[in-house]
Design brief:
Cysteine desulfurase; 39% helix; Aminotrans_V_PyrdxlP_BS; 413 residues; globular; transferase; alpha/beta; cysteine desulfurase activity; PyrdxlP-dep_Trfase_small; 4-stranded antiparallel β-sheet; binds 4'-deoxy-4'-aminopyridoxal-5'-phosphate
């Protein structure tokens, strides 16, 4: 039976009460691309703009001080949310992509050279792949891949050999395409034993499960606010203080300086050393509100809810397999995030997504920014349904009904 908490959560998200132009209820199954926003987050943005909009850090007047306090309080909330030892270890960025690029340009260019290697995986989103390809080309370092099996689980048999000479391991925590979860408890200590630094792309984990950067002992971790009930245009990089202290700035200009003369510049302390120019003040405050909201629900509850829902969906979809539905990834819901990729007979994933849209069911179709993985798996595209705290069994039922309709439209059995 559905948890009564579900209905209360759904009521927190105004968009979930809307219908499409055909009068169909919004069945939003694309949270891996971007999540919906609860009223509390939307209200925090309006409150900022209506009551204390001002630039931060330099203003002496009341609303500027209030904006500065709220902006820095939001950073502290994010630090607590991922259990960073120190608030200064949280750097605001636009998104996961910018956080990874910060590490690539700052840490990467300063620390890598010919003879060094970067180890990533075959599962990566382009955001955690293209920066390393470019860094390898610039520095002469080699780029290597941990292989994935047909279920998208990492194959660690040759990990020791792959780690030889590696200075950076950059990997996704949860695959946005197939939902598999990387065994960080195995990989991180072995990477450290080889003297490598570990960066985790947590775009699909921080929103969905408890993530503790100290327990995981990761060196860098990147995430996006818009996937965790926060606004677009705000994300963060966590980095261990000693690493961040030793790194040169990424972008330069105002705010990231301590003192500037015509000849030279000294840089600001952490975290501001990495925050050049006026920050995205409103959206950082909004992300703070999102973290408050998620914490009040409880990350343990959200993870358990998504496992329950994924198990329910995997089971419900099984009924369509005889008609040609192919679901990818492991059948064990506890071993995956709330992301299910599939294809249906020879219906192109985009056509499938269009039919589902007529029923109000929003899924993504395509390569999900993982073109090398699609090529390796031999999938031209997949349709992907992804879940979050506000997703219900009724949403999964609507997906199954819409797929049934698509089968009829395309004459599949
Ligand atoms: N990594 C993963 C695993 C993702 O799912 C995404 C978003 N699809 C990103 C990185 C990039 O996130 P953003 O576009 O917010 O930078």
């Amino acid at each position: 039976a559905a948890d009564p908490k579900e209905a209360r959560i759904a009521a927190d998200f105004p968009i979930l009460a809307t219908t499409n132009s055909r009068g169909k209820r919004l069945v939003y199954l694309d949270s891996a691309a971007s999540s919906q926003k609860p009223r509390a987050v939307i209200a925090s943005l309006v409150d900022y703009y209506e009551h204390y909009n001002a630039n931060i850090h330099r203003g002496v007047y009341e609303i500027a001080a209030r904006a500065t306090d709220a902006f820095e309080a939001a950073r502290a909330k994010v630090a607590r949310f991922v259990n960073a030892a120190d608030t200064a270890e949280i750097i605001w960025t636009r998104n996961t992509t910018e956080a990874i690029n910060l590490v690539s340009f700052s840490w990467g260019l300063a620390n890598l050279g010919p003879g060094d290697a970067i180890l990533t995986t075959q599962l990566e989103h382009h955001s955690n792949l293209v920066p390393w390809q470019l860094l390898a080309a610039k520095t002469g370092a080699q780029l290597r891949y941990i292989p994935a099996d047909a279920d998208g689980e990492l194959v660690l048999d040759d990990l020791e050999t792959l780690l030889d000479g590696v200075k950076l391991v950059a990997l996704t925590h949860v695959s946005n395409t197939i939902g598999s979860i990387a065994p960080l408890d195995v990989i991180v200590p072995r990477a450290h034993a080889h003297g490598a630094v570990v960066l985790v792309d947590a775009a699909q984990s921080v929103p969905h499960m408890p993530v503790d950067v100290q327990a995981l002992d990761v060196d860098f971790l990147a995430a996006s606010g818009h996937k965790m009930c926060g606004p677009t245009g705000i994300g963060f990089l966590y980095g261990k203080r000693a690493l961040l202290e030793a790194m040169p700035p990424f972008l330069t200009g105002g705010d990231m300086i301590k003192r500037v003369s015509y000849e030279t510049t000294s840089f600001n302390e952490l975290p501001w050393k990495f925050e050049a120019g006026t920050s995205n003040i409103a959206d950082a405050i909004g992300l703070g509100a999102a973290v408050d909201y998620l914490s009040a629900i409880g990350m343990e509850w959200i993870r358990a809810h998504e496992i329950r829902l994924t198990a329910y969906a995997l089971d419900a979809l099984r009924g369509l397999e005889a008609r040609g539905l192919h679901v990818y990834g492991t059948r064990d819901a506890a071993r995956r995030g709330g992301v299910i990729s599939f294809n249906f007979g020879d219906i192109h994933a985009h056509d499938l997504a269009s039919i589902l849209d007529t029923e109000g069911v929003c899924v993504r179709a395509g390569h999900h920014c993982t073109m090398p993985l699609m090529e390796k798996m031999g999938w031209p595209a997949t349709a992907r349904a992804s879940f979050y705290l506000y997703t219900t069994e009724a949403d999964v039922d609507a997906l199954v009904r819409a797929l049934d309709k698509a089968a009829g439209v395309f004459g599949l059995g």
